[in-house]
Design brief:
- 2 copies of one chain form a homodimer.
- The first copy, chain A, is an alpha+beta fold.
- The first copy, chain A, has helices spanning 21-28, 108-117, 119-143, 148-163, 180-187, 191-203, 220-226; strands at 32-36, 41-43, 51-57, 60-65, 71-77, 82-83, 94-97, 101-107, 173-175, 207-210, 214-217.
- A 4-stranded antiparallel sheet of chain A has the order 1-8-3-6. A 4-stranded antiparallel sheet of chain A has the order 2-7-4-5. The first copy, chain A, has a 3-stranded antiparallel sheet with strand order 9-11-10.
- The longest helix of chain A has 25 residues, at 119-143.
- Chain A is globular, with a radius of gyration of 19 Å.
- The relative contact order of chain A is 0.13.
- Chain A binds chain B through residues 62, 64, 66-68, 70, 72, 74-75, 85-88, 92-93, 115-116, 119, 122-123, 125-127, 129-134, 136-137, 139-141, 143-144, 146, 188, 228, and chain B through 62, 64, 66-68, 70, 72, 74-75, 85-88, 92-93, 115-116, 119, 122-123, 125-127, 129-134, 136-137, 139-141, 143-144, 146, 188, 228.
- The first copy, chain A, binds a DNA duplex through residues 146-148, 179-181, 189-193, 195-196, 198-199, 211-212.
Amino acid sequence: MTLACDTCPVRAKAACSALTDEERSALARLGRTRELKRGERLFAAGDEITACATLIEGALKVAATDAEGNESILALVHPAGFIGEMFAPFPSYEVTALTDSRVCQFSRAHLEAAVERHPALGIALLQRAQEDLHSARELLDLSRRKTAAARVAGLILAFARAASDSPCHPAESFDLPLTRGEMAAMLGLTIETVSRQLGELEAMGAIARKGARGIALVTPAQLGELAV
Amino acid sequence: MTLACDTCPVRAKAACSALTDEERSALARLGRTRELKRGERLFAAGDEITACATLIEGALKVAATDAEGNESILALVHPAGFIGEMFAPFPSYEVTALTDSRVCQFSRAHLEAAVERHPALGIALLQRAQEDLHSARELLDLSRRKTAAARVAGLILAFARAASDSPCHPAESFDLPLTRGEMAAMLGLTIETVSRQLGELEAMGAIARKGARGIALVTPAQLGELAV
DNA sequence: CGAATCTTTGAAGAATGTCAAAAGCTGTGG
DNA sequence: CCACAGCTTTTGACATTCTTCAAAGATTCG
């Protein structure tokens, strides 16, 4: 499958935007796009072949699964996000599609060569890695909040900010991008506790719900206080 | 204070090892070393000036503190580790010395210029950022283990591996680098729970303790099972 | 429309947090 | 060398929160 960088929806935001059109085209010939259906796995922990990818559309999750099958979600990946460990011997975590997705995938060797040839690409990847590090630390902080109420309130605020066009103000209403189980796996709680906390938040008038996924922020300030 | 790269104990491992001696000397003239006593802060969240640093000796912690003064430890930094967000507008977290430490500090502007001039430095920083990301995700996974026993057992194993010379086998005996309170802040538990779990681990014969900090691994396999 | 999945709700039990106090360790100064 | 002050660690009893187990209600999608 051939890459069509010219019509790529993330061509302005992805790491490859650090390259000129010709440089990007040369890199494109070494990669390929891959379509993933919801629930399909892009990488698995321990895979022998290590690849890297940029998410074009959809959403992915990075997760660890323990022996009993409990999943711990370590990161969400949005379009233009980069996935892949360029220096580790093999992938450490599973990467799975949350919704139908499309990625632009490269072998690690090709990407390494491109980074050596084009310093700007390395800088773009460095920026992305530092942003990912920041996100991981935010999630770490959120996952350790003392009460379940603080964790759920904080997650809803995070989703509201991500759903908003403006960087400052959270969206007033939006759809939760995750199931209860996935929210639980992001917060270190059980499905039931997440469900009950959402009910509490609605009962106390901080949010309103429409169906299982729809959320409206009634009192954002109250949410912020609950999130501590 | 002038930098003495020639005698720097981390000259072979730090990011600046990607540079030639002359390049490093040029960069060195723009930086300065700084000594920190135990508990002293290197950066605070919200500081206006953003700086970057390499740890030369000692140990640092990256932490977030909430309104009630509860600390959540997001990362430990060992010698040759790099600290600093090169692309964020201001530092997001506090960086504090766990023990008396010495760092090699640069302004962000100088470091950015050096990265543009020396692509190998950018690649070295990229590798470090991806390693830090990996560590953050490991800690995230550890912090979400269901039981306090699994978290404490996992942390002890992580310390044992860090204390070992060989990368494969954990050290058989070592000193805990953190207080109970700091361990609690790494795991999302209370001091009392950490203390009780250590007692349990000793009572069941997985570890032996010598004083408040000394640990000997009696049954590493048992620890591994407890850590799930 | 029906099957599968996801969500909600309830009741009971286990685990951790909280509060309080004793014991151990460390470093300073007499 | 000892004594003391300050800090860290341990231990106990109790309250609270979360998890577990179970089952019924929604929602989604073929």
